[in-house]
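Key result, reporting period 2: structure in, sequence out.
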């Protein structure tokens, strides 16, 4: 080979090598920050539903998407710390379950897309409207309007004979507590019910709240959705059983822990749907243009064992329409 030809060949190869290496460089794997106010145990079934949703859309965790999971177990300070951690990790998108988790993520990462699941994102100030969220947050609401809490009162009235006074257990530090309380107060008069608000901010205040409800002659209890109450669901179930107070909840885990009834949007279904929002955002959609979805599937779960312990005869029509009856 002539020297000139060798130099030309070597030089051409030298130019080609970087181009070939660049062409073969793997695409960046997106990083998702997964943030929830619940505990690991409560979150796991929903997390699995979220993963199923991603898998159906063609994502292979660890290969085509990476996920960092953080669970705060009802601790608001942890939510903020985890959100800051996601900011340092420079995540591409955040999935946030609860209004508190969403607010923490938005504060730490104001320009990072967030897929949120919360009771009422408009009332919580997370989005401008359901149809056009605006900003960097979209996702799903767990309430089809606040009418679901009116349904809680209707169900209690069907179960508890001569129901007149209902206590409402609320954590005032929960960002949408006032909204949900207002929904109950709007619904109660039409059902001939009066409400008594009892509050607990910490686990050690739960017994005092339940005892206050009984002392003021409440005949039943509505437990407003709150991460701290869910984390303390076994303690709460034991308390209402000890005070013989029929209770209804906004999430199914309370009933499997011994609570009487729950009527709520299907969390697994909502988490599966959340994966579609993540997919659209990773493919270039803007959260501002993705309408917030409302739930279409609701579950009625009854713990018949608890009903019998309370001396309540569950109406046959309720048992017939219940999605799950625990015996």
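The corresponding designed sequence is given below.
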């Amino acid at each position: 080979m002539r020297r000139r030809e060798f130099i030309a060949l070597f030089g051409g190869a030298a130019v080609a090598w970087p181009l070939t290496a660049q062409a073969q460089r793997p695409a960046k794997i997106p990083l998702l920050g997964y943030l929830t106010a619940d505990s690991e145990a409560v979150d796991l079934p929903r997390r699995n539903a979220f993963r199923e949703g991603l898998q159906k859309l063609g994502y292979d965790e660890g290969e085509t998407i990476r996920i960092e999971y953080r669970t705060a177990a009802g601790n608001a300070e942890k939510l903020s710390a985890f959100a800051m951690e996601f900011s340092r990790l420079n995540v591409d998108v955040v999935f946030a379950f609860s209004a508190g988790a969403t607010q923490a993520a938005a504060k730490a990462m104001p320009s990072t897309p967030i897929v949120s699941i919360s009771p009422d994102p408009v009332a919580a100030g997370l989005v401008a409207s359901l149809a056009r969220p605006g900003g960097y947050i979209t996702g799903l609401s767990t309430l089809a309007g606040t009418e679901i809490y009116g349904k809680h009162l209707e169900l209690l009235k069907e179960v508890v004979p001569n129901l007149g006074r209902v206590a409402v257990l609320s954590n005032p530090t929960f960002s949408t507590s006032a909204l949900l309380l207002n929904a109950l107060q709007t619904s109660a008069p039409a059902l001939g019910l009066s409400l008594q608000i009892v509050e607990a901010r910490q686990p050690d205040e739960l017994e005092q709240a339940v005892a206050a409800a009984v002392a003021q002659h409440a005949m039943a209890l509505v437990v407003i959705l709150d991460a701290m109450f869910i984390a303390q669901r076994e303690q709460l179930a034991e308390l209402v059983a000890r005070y013989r107070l029929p209770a209804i909840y906004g999430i199914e885990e309370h009933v499997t822990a011994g609570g009487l009834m729950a009527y709520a949007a299907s969390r697994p279904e909502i988490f599966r749907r959340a994966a579609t929002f993540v997919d659209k955002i990773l493919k270039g959609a803007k959260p501002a243009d993705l309408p917030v979805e409302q739930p279409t599937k609701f579950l009625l779960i009854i713990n018949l064992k608890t009903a019998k312990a309370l001396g309540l005869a569950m109406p046959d029509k309720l048992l017939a329409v219940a999605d799950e009856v625990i015996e």
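The longest strand covers residues 31-36. The domain at 31-143+266-296 is CATH 3.40.50.2300 (Rossmann fold). This case is discussed further under Risks and Mitigation.
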